[in-house]
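*** Residues and shapes ***
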Amino acid sequence: MLHMQMLQNQSIQLKISPELSQAISMLQYSAEELLSFLQEKAEENPLIEIDELIDYSFLPSHPSSNTQADPLEFIAAEDIHLTDYLLEQLLFFDLSPDEKRLTTYLIQCLDENGYLQEDENEMALRLHTTQSEVERCLELIQSLEPAGVGARNLQECLLLQLENIHMHTPLAEHILSTHFEDFAYRKWSKLARLLEVDIKQIQHLHETILTLDPKPGLSYSNQGIPAVIPDYTVQFQNGKLFVTKNGQGNWNISLNKAYETMLRQNKKTEEGSYLREKYKEFQWIQNGLNTRNTTIHNVVLSLADCQKSFFQKGPEYLKPLTMKELAAYLNVHQSTISRAVRNKYVHTPFGVFELRSFFTGSTQAVNQEEVSSNRVKLFIKQIVETENKYNPLSDQQIAAMLKLKHEINISRRTVAKYRDELRILSSSKRKQFSASGAI
């Protein structure tokens, strides 16, 4: 009997009211998701008015990755799709109606990366024209911006971009067209012997290609990186931290005055009953907003305090911190922290960062101090940047240097893991060659 009563009590405790469930959801909403939710509720509830309903969705401020923030990123810019951009450029060409029709069709066939995947012969048959006419119109598209657009494969895309920067040489075309696989796998000694050229020429081509864009159309795609609205700004001035909530995305609601008057005047009518229900909904949404704002504000304040060195000196000074530790500090559940930082961003002197990025694992140093994994990655990056390019360091050697220089004791396997996360190649693939080809 007692066992059954305990089960019943547990089932009662596990029930979550719709209001509480919605409050939990509101906490994890991004600024855009919150606005969408409030707009939906305002359409259903005449008592709700959204304050400062400003559309900031056009802001192209993207999250940073340890780079200095560009002030121009916060200037509003209207997105333009690749198709529209290419069609605008066509206006400067004197095309016949048939040429314009065919070129427009080809532009509309490009995928989001700017590539043409369809077969020219099949398109020619479908459009009752010749393959040479299709290829002629495609050449026109390939002369447009961005460089590389209209390519049929990666090799052609790279060659078009090399031509755009006046680097399209017979050697480059031959390597990319005929020996692309060997080139991609960095079999430069083999290519140098086969083509009877200096290995430095092949290496220089590789370095140039690394600066090109393999997906030139993606930056014009609606599916690119979404705009980010920083929720907070944290600055360090005169030895003090200043935490400010930004106006963008700072949505709130107020009670519609006209309906508030009707609510008072029609207390006992059917209309009054309807308005009372809507007023209750208004209240729990407003309470949910207040809870959301207070929770996120407390989390940002605590993060700013815990990661003070980051805001003062830069990302390399990020300290080890887990959500569990911050939850204990604020006396809340870990899931509350997880929801509060989801899709929230902060503007710092070093760029825009997602709140999640301030939580990082740790590595034990020789002197028993904890060092954040991000800082270890920075040290690895610095070691690789200053190594001998003709005799790059192995992961074991990097681990030894970390211990010697920074008193950080990690395994070769951990170095390899961090190196992969930094997208740094293995030592064998980082190796460059002397002019003689000697290793």
